[in-house]
User: Fold these one by one.
Assistant:
Number 1:
Amino acid sequence: MCSHGAVCSSYAPGHALHLIQSRLASATPSDWTDAIVESVDTATGDIVVRTVADGTPVAVWNAEGAAGLVSPGAPIALHGRYDVLAVGTRRFNILRTA
């Protein structure tokens, strides 16, 4: 459904964020990594970020509009264990693509 502009009804990686996934990410704060957005493709939902700690590039995809909320140079956070992207107070389920 999300590819047609409707609300995402899938909890597969990169789609809707499940409440349990969100709670697990919140309960494990040591697994968050700060990063800076390097590039964004709003048409495809692809985002490339670079971690602040060591400059590692991380490519992710999200179908729920995360790409529309960030721009190059924006600070974000990635949760390594539960694949959550934090943009300000918003949280998104992500699929790591590289």
Note: The two ends are 25 Å apart (CA to CA).
Number 2:
Amino acid sequence: MRFVLRILKALALLLVLLVITAASWLFIRPPELLSVGDGYAAKIVCSNVFIAGRGAEDVLHDDVQAPGNPLLRLVRVSVDRDNDRVTARFMGLFAPSYALYRGAFGCASVPDGNFEAAANAAPFDPPAKMQANDALWPEGEGTGNPADGKIAALLADAGVAGPAMRAIVVVRNGRIVAEAYGPGFSAKTPLIGWSMTKTVNAALLGRLMLDGKISFDDDNLLAQWKNDARARIKVSDLLGMESGLAFNEDYGDVADVTRMLYLDPDMVSLPANAPMEAAPGQRFRYSSGTAVLLSRIWMDRVGNAQAAFSYPHDALFSPLGMTSAVFELDARGTFAGSSYLYATAHDWARFGQFLLQDGVWNGQRLLPEGFVGAMRTPTAASNGRYTQGQAWLAPGGPSAAFGLPEDTFWLTGHDGQSMAIVPSANLVVVRLGLTPIRLDYQPQTLLKAILAAVPQSGEPKQQAGSQQKAQPQP
């Protein structure tokens, strides 16, 4: 009996030592996967609390834990409203990661905990906040006449709207004809676009093209590329996701994309130092790193730092009346052009209508002729799926396979964000939600149903000066 007790005591001691050793390891050198998870949790909670006004625990449960890796269910967050910070820790103890709210520039992941550097990277003179009004959309937030009954009925069908839909806005002939919102969300809730941000970021670059400060054919884009093969990469190569730079966009583990977003305070660093794996123009590789590089490039071309920080507001959001738009900066002061634009569904629809109108708004051309055409022109390297302007022609399959008009093009984003633009039907459909790819929802289902419900007769009515023109290639 004493022998058995000694064995049990020894085993208990061994177990205690193992627990202490494991805890010490997690505390001193946590696995990168835990740091990525905590970084993701801190950033998503921060943006939704401070931008969208949602509750921290609701965001942690609904946005971070429910659809994600099971390990995320062990993450705990705390919100420090006095210092505008969010901290996330695995099991409330390990692998701490942080996010910092910086007003007009939203939240930034601060994986190194250097809040002073992150605060100083954001300008002290942000653009003035625009105020919404009650005029009829898109001039204001009013929607006028009652919604189209047929389309409203479609949006109420969960099978058409898709799981965990948060907002749908349907714009026909330049006016909102129907909209729907999930529980807890409304027309006033700013929602993340994830990779739909890439197309907005591309439009900012297009604004600079209109001013002659950059072109599709520009190369020698970064100083550190000056003396190697990357100097041959052109703006057009980056826009078409065919730069030849290596980048791993796998979200299932610690990959280039998650490392860039949640482990590096300077998001430019990883893609800027990526090696070449193919000659420019020869291989399609979807890359969030590419979009961040485009952010850095257009910011450098604006002229000075303060003007660059104000540029999204001054060049795009203010002219379009996107009063809710918050384009977030990373911890070192580069716009996160791959992922982090928050806006209401009404404002996302404004951007879609802007593209439908060929980059013209209220009679003023804001994008050069041919730029939206590039967004609708497939690249050869992507086998016709992706376009020359950070947009999609065939996400999940060609339009014809779904019975959709051939001129349909798309903005899409992580977890079910989508915007369909159909020039021939004068139609924009924005759908935002939290719908992971494993649920196999395809927004083409929604678009097809709406197209079947809208009247097909009559000439489309567009804003003055918005008529489509033949598009030259970049």
Note: Residues 190 and 344 are 4 Å apart (CA to CA).
